[in-house]
Amino acid sequence: MLVETIAPAVPAALQGADRRTMTMTTDPHPPLTQATRDLADETATAGLARALASCARAGDVIALTGNLGAGKTSFARAFVRAFHGREHEEVPSPTFTLVQTYPGQRGELWHVDAYRLRAPDEILELGLDDAFPDGIILIEWPERLGAHLPRRRLDISLSHGPTETSRQAILKDQGGGDWCQRLGESEVTQ
Ligand SMILES: Nc1ncnc2c1ncn2[C@@H]1O[C@H](COP(=O)(O)OP(=O)(O)O)[C@@H](O)[C@H]1O
Ligand SMILES: [Mg+2]
Predict the structure, then answer these.
(1) Which of 87, 94, 129, 181 is most buried, judging by how many CB atoms fall within 10 Å of its CB?
(2) Which contacts of 51-54 are long-range, i.e. CB under 8 A and separated by 24 or more positions?
(3) Which mutation among 42, 91, 93 tests ligand 1's pocket best, with the greatest number of atoms within 8 A of CB?
(4) pTM, two decimal places
């Protein structure tokens, strides 16, 4: 059901000037909150990543889905830089190492690229369990984790838009992570 009356509560960080939607279920389980954001270029993608990084906290899991070239790593790089407050930090892609970790005051940040996992259990060998509950985890190709993918997470699905540099992000808060609220707060404090 589209709830018109909650529209003013959509945080500024999720309000694309261009397009937005917000739906809530009346399910007894934690509400699913969804927002769509049109990203005109890589700078806009980085802006969304920065807004999320500014309000990320220990125990958060952000699952990035989308085809090759959709912008998952680009998003993750901007997130890592904002998390560290180092705009020009070199952020290697974990394509081959599968995991890169970054210490931080709000917890250790894990950037995982699960594309090359041969089996979901392999993620345990890489120590993902150690990342909980004090770490913040960004995962590319989260579907490769199978049952090891935490249920409580923020899903971000990236897809190509109508132009070379445009992307669309669909954010789904799976499990009451208060992401929408937090993004609103982060906008206020930035
Ligand atoms: N709006 C955008 N958001 C993210 N990346 C973009 C955007 N527009 C163009 N790009 C380019 O698309 C490519 C995305 O690559 P990458 O982030 O490695 O994708 P993935 O990790 O999803 O395979 C990069 O070359 C980046 O410069
Ligand atoms: Mg990638």
Answers:
(1) 94
(2) 51/13, 51/183, 51/186, 51/187, 51/190, 52/79, 52/154, 52/179, 52/183, 53/78, 53/79, 53/80, 53/82, 53/83, 54/82, 54/186, 54/189, 54/190
(3) 42
(4) 0.84
